[in-house]
Amino acid sequence: MPNRAFPLDNFGQLLRAHNGVRTFDFNQTIATRQAGAVPSGGICLSLSCHWIKYHAFDDSLVNHIGGVRDNNGRTLLAFNQQEYRRVIRWQQSIRLFPDWEMAYRAWVRNNRLHIRSDRKTDMGLAAVRNELSRIRDGYALIIIESQNVSYSHAVAAYIGTQDACFFEPNYGEYWFSHRSDFFDFFHFFSNFFYRRSHRQNLGLDSYNVAGIYR
C-alpha cells in the first residue's frame, strides 16, 4: 500500500497512487442535464447495471451512451440522448416496484447474467478485500447504503484473476492492472467520498455486494 501524502479528496492523486488508469470519462449529473431530464436521486443503479451488461458481452457502456474514451488519447463519442433517456426510464421503472431489489435481479437474469452471491459487509479494508476477492472473472454490483439514511449509491466492477475495472457513475471507468490495487483504492475512495465526504457527511456505512457472472 503506498504512503499517502495528499488529501483524500484529490481523486486523481488517489487513483495514481493505486496505479489506476482512466478509460472512460463520465459524469451522470452532466449527462442527465444534457438529456434534459432530472430524475430524483440519480440513476446510479441503472448505469451500473447497464455497464455490467455491456462489459460482460465484450462491449462498453460508452459505445451506447457516448462520452470521452481515454485510450492513448481522448476520443469524444457523441452523446446518445435517446439511449440515455432509456437508461433513465429503467431506473424510474424500478422505483415503481414494491421490492426494487427483486426488480433489478429479474432484469439481470433477463440479460443472460447470473447472481451467484449477495452479501452485506462493513466498510473496513479487511471486510471489502475479503468480499471482493471472492469474485474471479465476474462482476460486483456494489450498493453503498446505511440503515440510518434513506438514500444509497451504486457502483460496479469487473474483477478478474489479475486485473480489475471499476465504474463509478459520477467519475467514469478505471482500469487497474492488479486487482489488489483496486481493493485498496476502493476502500479509501468509498470511505471518504461516501462515508465522510469533504462536501458533507453522507453517512453511508455498509456495502451490499452482488457477485454477477455471465
Strand order of the largest sheet: 3-2-1-8-7-6-5-9-4
The helix fraction, in percent, is 25-40%
The termini sit apart by 32 Å
User: How many DSSP-defined strands?
Assistant: 9
The CATH topology is what? Answer: Cathepsin B, Chain A
Just name the CATH architecture: Alpha-Beta Complex
Cα Rg: 16 Å
What structural category do the secondary elements indicate? Answer: alpha+beta
Output mean pLDDT: 88
Largest sheet: 9 strands, antiparallel
- What gross morphology would you assign? globular
Query: How many separate domains make up the residues?
Result: 1
- Helix count equals 8
Order of helices and strands: HEHHHEEHHEHEEEEHE
CATH class: Alpha Beta
- Tell me the β content: 25-35%
Low-pLDDT ranges: 1-7
Describe this structure in words.
GO terms for molecular function: cysteine-type endopeptidase activity. One of its GO terms (biological process) is proteolysis. Residues 17-202 form the Peptidase C58 YopT-type domain. It is built from eight helices and nine strands. The protein has helices at 11-17, 28-34, 44-56, 62-65, 81-94, 100-110, 125-132, 179-195, and strands spanning 20-25, 67-70, 74-77, 114-122, 138-145, 153-159, 164-168, 172-176, 206-213. It has 214 residues and is of the alpha+beta class. β7 (164-168) and β8 (172-176) form a beta hairpin. It has one domain: Cathepsin B, Chain A (Alpha-Beta Complex), CATH 3.90.70. Strands 3-2-1-8-7-6-5-9-4 form a nine-stranded antiparallel β-sheet, sandwiched between helices.
